[in-house]
Amino acid sequence: MEKENHQDNGLSSYGTASMLSNIDDPSGEDVLSRREFLEFASAGVIAGTLHAAFPPANVWAEVKNGIPYRQLGRTGEKVSLVGMGGYHLGKQADPNESITIIRKALDEGINFLDNCWDYNDGESEIRMGKALRDGYRDKAFLMTKIDGRTKSSAVSQIDDSLRRLQTDHIDLLQFHEVIRDTDPDRIFAKGGALEAVVEAKRDGKIRFIGFTGHKSPEIHLKMLATAARHHFSFDTVQMPLNVMDAHFDSFEKKVLPMLVRDDVGVLGMKPMGDHFILDSKTATPVECLHYAMNLPTSVVITGCDSLPILDQALQAARSFKPLTESQRATVLAKTAAAAQAGKYELYKTSHHFDGTFANPHWLG
């Protein structure tokens, strides 16, 4: 699962989608050729060397209560530099404490809320729905995710999420855990999940569409290429962006430049790789957060399972200043050796975070 954990020693961790009114009906042959895929992927690898082309990290859309806001790609929406992850809110022993955390975050200037249909068997969405009562829904840019790969499973999960979140619309719905080479083709197939999501958007149940994944930059590139073949544009893409990803099978180097080029909203997650990057003793929580904020991310999503952890996240956002090249090089030098082979990025190298691997029935 795409979740960010913490320990007591610190924080754990854009217009409307342009699409044709008719989704292509792919046959068994409607898949990327090897040449097309390699060309698409190579463009991302080459673009990954063009760090100088990234927009300045100090370009704010505005500041609210000391929290910088950035544009969410082409959507016209503005989102807080730091966003609240939903997974650990459902693990909190006291449900009322979860509600307090969410409401304090919204009162303090965070507006981006992350969640997922499968987090804690729906408990994370249920608690967030309760927190969004009494006028708090108007303060939030609400994102959740679905696991369904078929139209029927996606319809059911969207309706479940709307009910639990106690809202008539979700601002951003994302396909969760795009971690298999087969996921893009299943989602875009005739009778696939995209049909349900497009219909939900037309019905006003959702506003924007994105996808998430933590396994491989190549799978992200295939998802983007598959969308392009079907004349579909995602509004957002979510992926791990952190001090170790920069060294190993890197989303930052292979995928991020393409999103910036196409003005897609970039959602950074796992700034601390769950707690594992902190366990490596190579970077502090604030260094981890500031590194991700220094990238052309619209929002950096981090788990906040207690009020002290929330306070640290707020302070990291309020104190953020663009890193000098020397500061960035120092952080990367400290993490280079530990990052080799993905030892501290278990979401890339194991099934430790793969909720849909353990529960394949969620896919439909």
Concise structural overview:
This protein has about 375 residues and is α/β, with parallel strands linked by helices.
How do the strands and helices of this protein lay out in sequence?
Blueprint: H1 34-47, E1 62-64, E2 67-71, E3 78-80, E4 82-85, H2 95-108, E5 112-113, H3 123-131, E6 141-146, H4 151-165, E7 170-175, H5 183-188, H6 193-202, E8 206-212, H7 217-229, E9 236-240, H8 251-254, H9 256-261, E10 265-269, H10 276-279, H11 285-294, E11 299-303, H12 307-319, H13 325-339, H14 346-349, H15 355-358
Parallel strand pairs: 4-11, 5-6, 6-7, 7-8, 8-9, 9-10, 10-11
Antiparallel strand pairs: 1-2, 2-3
Helix pairs in contact: 1-7, 2-3, 3-4, 4-6, 11-12
| Tally of alpha and pi helices | 15
Helix content: 25-40%
Radius of gyration, whole Å: 19 Å
Order of helices and strands: HEEEEHEHEHEHHEHEHHEHHEHHHH
The best one-word shape is globular
* Quaternary organisation: single chain
Mean pLDDT over the residues: 87
Biggest sheet, open or closed, and with what strands and sense? 8 strands, parallel
- Structural class, judged by helices and strands? alpha/beta
Uncertain spans:
1-53
User: What fraction of residues sit in β-strands?
Assistant: 5-15%
Strand line-up of the largest beta sheet: 4-11-10-9-8-7-6-5
